[in-house]
Structure formats: structure tokens, C-alpha cells
Amino acid sequence: MNNTSGRSLIPKNIEHLKPYVAGKTIAEVADIYKPEKIAKLASNENRLGCSPKVKGAIDEVFKEIQDYPDPVARKLRAAIAERNNVEDENVIIAAGSESIISMLCKTFFLNKENAITASATFVGFFVQIGVRGVHLKKIPVTDDYRYDIKAIVNAIDDQTKMVYIANPNNPTGTYITKDEFEWMMKEVPEDILVVMDEAYHEYTGNVEDYPQVLDYDYDNIITLRTFSKAYGLAGLRVGYGIAHKKVIRNMMKTKLTFEPTALGQAAALAAYNDQDHLRKSIEVVEKAKERLYEFFDEQDVDYVKSVSNSVMMVFPTEEEAINFNQKMLEKGVILRRINAFGLPNCIRITVGMPEEMQHFEDTFLEVTKN
Ligand SMILES: Cc1ncc(COP(=O)(O)O)c(C=O)c1O
After folding, report:
1. What is the pTM of this model?
2. For residue 128, how far is the Cα from the chain centroid?
3. Is the CB of 325 under 6 A from ligand 1?
4. Closest by Cα among 19, 21, 22, 17 to 234
5. Residue 219: phi, psi to the nearest 5?
6. Mutate which of 93, 176, 226 to test ligand 1's pocket (most atoms within 8 Å of Cβ)?
7. C-alpha angle 93/217/85, rounded to 5°?
8. Nearest to residue 353, comparing CAs of 294, 292, 303?
């Protein structure tokens, strides 16, 4: 039939959207390049793996796998609420914090409203905002790759509905300080939702001026956390948000009813209750990060100090970043180009286990010699 309406089948915002391209998997790299060994240092996962307690918890729930999961993840929600001194109704749990970002985009925007974030931040936010067709103001990061909070606040207009801050930021590993956070919250009107995405919060324990957002009493903040990073459960997809009850209540209306899965809920609870394993995971990162800085200093590599579990290398040109990434990949070191995150001349390396980091160093020396 002829198209009489002049509309196109695919809406423009979806047609023009760049889809999220995930890092290569170990299986893909093994298949294509057949390297002797592989270090997957691309997606900021916990290379130590999850708590050993997770397996038993999953086995237990597996007995009831024919039943739908608890739609509000009551047990996990209660544990998260208790540890963070909030009420259960302040917590929403979903299939990863990316799902919560998607929910935020579905819930909070009317036509013509806009969101503001940094030019170099989590690409998942760019994607979900694009899916919703919301105008996004991307504010350039500072020369030292930090969120420019003043410029973000200056960019607010009467159509602004959301400010998104990843703290620590991915891919830069930098953070906004307590002073910056407090100043920002004084300036941002109450009808704008401030999304504080704390996917890497667990790694910031030693950072004195990192803001503890949950200690403040603002109705227009949502704090996002995840079990995908320090808790080592990326494959099970569990994340959560903490906010005012009114925010959570309305987000529940747009949440897919049965996310996250029953296995995810049980695994996350077991991991959450094993704080010893969490500490071990953080120690692995701290130690390896110190060594990585030393190595980069020895090799004269330009990099950005990080308070998360990844470090960003800065190359003079995009071409050099592409070449380096490709050569490393062929030798089994999977790194992450972060062009989609807004920094085409940078590469992100996840800080992993000693043997993986050694593989990185050896391969680095091999591919950069001469
Ligand atoms: C800042 C940030 N937020 C959210 C996510 C998504 O995490 P999840 O696995 O919980 O969806 C990531 C993952 O890379 C991230 O870096």
C-alpha cells in the first residue's frame, strides 16, 4: 500500500540512534584471534568474581524457578534499605542500573524537556535518553576530564528536567567532590531530578571529599547503585535506586513487573551479605591500580588517576588509540575504546587480577616496542 501519511515506519530518534556496542566477549576474541591467553579488561567487571556464597543462594532459588519472581524483591529491598538507613519504599530494584536509567527516561519527561550531563560519561545514558527522544545537552568535561559542574548548572533552562552525574564517572574515573555536590544542589531547582549514578561507589571508600549523597535530605535526587561491578554479578543484572518515596512510587509504574529475575535477587542478597568478599574485591583493585600507575609512569603513558576500577589512557590521536587497541586485542588483551563515551582518543582499562595485569604489561611492551 502507498504511504499516504508521509510518516516513516521507524521514528527519527530511533533511526538516528547509535546503539550501545558492548566490549568483545572472551569467546569472540578466542574465536577470531586465537591468542594463547586472554585478559578481559574491557567492561569494569570484578575480575576476582562474585562471592562464593552466591552459588548456594542460586541453587536454593532454582528449586522454585517455575514461579515468577517477587516483583518488588522484598528481601533484597529490605537489606538495602536497612544498610542505607532508609525505608523499603525508598528503594527500587531492577535488572541493572541501566534498566533504572531507562525507567527514569520513561517516567520523567514531557515533550520538549531536556536533560543535561557531561560530554564524556556513561554511554548507556546517552542511549536511553535518545530512545525517549529527549534533547540532551552534553557539557564538555574540564581539561582534567572532570564534570564541569558550574557549566552544567549554567546550562539549566526552564525545560530542563534531569541532570545526570556518574560519580565516579565512567569512563574517566574522576569524581565530583562534596563541595561541588553541595553547591550544585543549592543551585538546581527542586523540579529537576538529579541522577547520581554511583555504579562504582564501593571503590571510593578512601576518597575523603567524595560526597555521601544518601546523607543529604533532598527530594529530587535518585542515587543509583549496581551489583554488576564490585559485587561481581554483571551476568545476573541487578541494580537499585534510592530516592524519595514519591519518585520510587512513580517509577514502579514504568518498571517491567518481574525484573530482576529470581536468581538475580537471591544472588544479589547473598553477595550483599558477604562484605568480606567485597573488601577483598576492592583490595585487588587498589593494589593493581597502584602498580598500573607505576607502570604507566615508567612507560611515559598519559593517563588519568581514577577512584573507580578502571583507568583511562590518553593517546595523542584517535588513530593511535585505535591501533593500540587492535594490537592488544589480537594478543588477547581486551580493552575498551571509549569513542562512544565521547573520548575517541582514549582507551579504558579495567583493573583486574595480577595475572591479567601482567598479561597487559607484557603485551603493552611487546606492541609498543620500536
Ligand atoms: C556509570 C555506570 N552506570 C551504569 C552502568 C550499568 O550497570 P548495570 O550493569 O547495573 O546496568 C555502568 C556500566 O558500565 C556504568 O559504568
Report:
1. 0.96
2. 13
3. no
4. 22
5. -80, -15
6. 226
7. 50
8. 292
- Per the structure block, which three cell numbers stand in for 243? 530516592
C-alpha closest to that of 362 among 331, 318, 319: 331
Task: Give yes or no for residue 121 CB within 6 A of ligand 1.
Answer: no
- In this predicted model, what pLDDT tens digit does every residue of 117-174 receive, in sequence order? 999 999 999 999 999 999 999 999 999 999 999 999 999 999 999 999 999 999 999 9
Residue 263 contacts by C-beta under 8 Å, 6 or more apart in sequence?
58, 61, 62, 65, 236
Which domains, and CATH codes, for the chain? 12-49+276-368 (3.90.1150.10), 53-274 (3.40.640.10)
Is any atom of ligand 1 closer than 6 Å to the C-beta of 124? Answer: yes
Chain centroid to CA 135: how far? 21
CA-to-CA distance for 293 and 135, rounded, in angstroms?
38
Q: What is the dihedral of CA 273, 277, 279, 281, to 10 degrees?
A: -130
> Which among 315, 314, 298 is positioned nearest to 365, based on CA atoms?
298
Q: 198 CB under 6 A from ligand 1?
A: no
Give the per-residue pLDDT at 22: 76
Helix (H, G, I), strand (E, B) or coil at 225: strand
